[in-house]
Amino acid sequence: MDSFEKKIEILKVIAHPTRIKILDELTKGVKCVSDFEEFLDIAQPNVSQHLSLLRAHKIIDYYVDGRLRCYFLVDPLIPEVIEALKKEHEGSLPAPACCPVTKKGKYPGNRKH
Length: 113
Known about the structure:
With 113 residues, the chain is of the alpha+beta class. It is 47% helix and 12% strand. It has a single domain (3-86), classed as Arc Repressor Mutant, subunit A, CATH 1.10.10. The protein has helices spanning 3-14, 17-26, 33-40, 44-56, 77-86; strands at 31-32, 60-65, 68-73. It has a three-stranded antiparallel beta sheet.
């Protein structure tokens, strides 16, 4: 699997609201399962399922401190993705003046959504 395909696979794995929230918290530092339970307001088994999936794809990892599992980010792409998701954008990109190949035609001004 090449680098681009690997990044696409990572995006597929993280594309869930709960996993995005988990990863956002991990960009701030190491967290334990109990930390996630508090801000996610979901049961521990559900939190553990999300953490297991992220770990299986080598996006996060953990170390054991006594009885606690302390999770942290591994994949360097994640902070960039989280930051991109937080950016606010106004409007849309400008329309092309004409076709870049034929150099003809004009954008009519009404985009179909």
